[in-house]
Amino acid sequence: xLDFRKxxxxxxxxxxxxxxxxxxQLHLTxxxxxxxxxxxxxxxxxxxxxxxxxxxxxxxxxxLLQYLRRARLLSEEFQADTREQPLRLALAVNHDTLATWLxxxxxxxxxxxxxxxxxxxxxxxxxxxxxxxxxxxAAISTAAEPMRGxxxxxxxxxxxxxxxxxxxxxxxxxxxxxxxxxxxAPLLVFDRKDSLQARFLxxxxxxxxxxxxxxxxxxxxxxxxxxxxxxxxxxxPDQQVSTPLHDLAPGRWIDxxxxxxxxxxxxxxxxxxxxxxxxxxxxxxxxxxx
Length: 290
What we know:
- It is elongated, with a radius of gyration of 22 Å.
- The chain contains eleven helices and eleven strands.
- The strands form three sheets. Strands 3, 4, 5, 6, 9, 10 and 11 form a seven-stranded mixed β-sheet that branches. The chain has a two-stranded antiparallel ribbon with strand order 1-2. The chain has a two-stranded parallel ribbon with strand order 7-8.
- The mean pLDDT is 88.
- The protein has a domain at 158-254: 3-Layer(aba) Sandwich (D-Maltodextrin-Binding Protein, domain 2).
- By secondary structure, it is an alpha/beta fold.
């Protein structure tokens, strides 16, 4: 059986990014934290931490993180039940999901269940990796395949359309979505991981990635606001359109499938959260089979 104190030291190093910060968190000296982690590595016969700035888990360390986070959740859930304390759940989710259908539908549930969320945000194509690295206990992702020891459930599809403010569309696309106009008009892109706009322009106009001028706005609500203000044009999910916008490609869109990922052995609280997320998805997303 793993030594609890050594496991907590390892978790603190990865979560904080350094032995010094882990020591402050655990009220220990840095040398004591280092000793516990080193002893754990010796007992398991594997290197768990890449000592750097910040410290990060090795591949073996990521597997151990997955186990330790699940074990900690079960322990904390028991304590929460007996002491009536709130329970914290780590969830990896994409920005647009959080900004549209997920967070509003969780408000009453979180209060009723007395749960605290610890959210890790990333592009929907990358949230799966946060779960694999042991940084979350569940994730909403575009990945359809479960990871080893995990389960996956289909949630539905978010439909994205290429939109612009009416005045922007009139200025840059008076004849509709054309290749040469798209090469000049400023495009809105979420961040460097965001390939949605590039996929659509390549699919519809044959424009290769990197061939159009871009604004980068890595926040979901400001991104939508920038389109409404006429700063640029970009892809928005139907759930996020709150002002009259011009559809630059009527009848054409990209559907992004979303899946719920968790471990096969879950805590009761995580199972209840999963059920709530599934219910919200049914009410907000398009079915995957349509």
